[in-house]
């Protein structure tokens, strides 16, 4: 009978800031900012380098996937569209934006 070797504890998988940035498609400086603000919880190595737990990163990625089927909010109008809208309000409603909104609400019903 051979003695069973005691298993060494499994080391956690750690990612570098560049790897985390690649997962989230952001700049590595953004990952550093997330660590500074407490969004991510890095491990600081004796060398001073930061590493991120794979488990935490994968949970955040999965949470992001859960919101993938939620439609994006309405896009912001372009500066040109804003200028046209301001011109319409100024010309047709004597600059009264409330009157323009009321008119639009009654037209949409």
TrEMBL record:
Domain Helix-turn-helix: 14-63
SUPFAM superfamilies in UniProt: Putative DNA-binding domain (SSF46955)
Pfam families listed in its UniProt record: HTH_17
Origin: domain of life: Bacteria
Name of the protein described by the UniProt record: Helix-turn-helix domain-containing protein
Species, as recorded: Actinomadura rayongensis
């Amino acid at each position: 009978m051979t003695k069973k070797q005691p298993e060494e504890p499994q080391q956690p998988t750690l990612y570098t800031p560049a790897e985390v940035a690649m997962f989230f498609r952001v700049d590595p400086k953004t990952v550093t900012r997330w660590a500074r603000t407490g969004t991510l919880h890095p491990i600081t190595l004796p060398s001073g380098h930061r590493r991120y737990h794979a488990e935490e990163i994968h949970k955040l990625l999965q949470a992001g996937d859960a919101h993938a089927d939620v439609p994006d909010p309405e896009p912001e109008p372009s500066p040109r569209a804003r200028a046209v809208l301001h011109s319409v309000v100024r010309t047709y409603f004597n600059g009264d934006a409330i009157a323009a909104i009321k008119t639009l609400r009654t037209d949409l019903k």
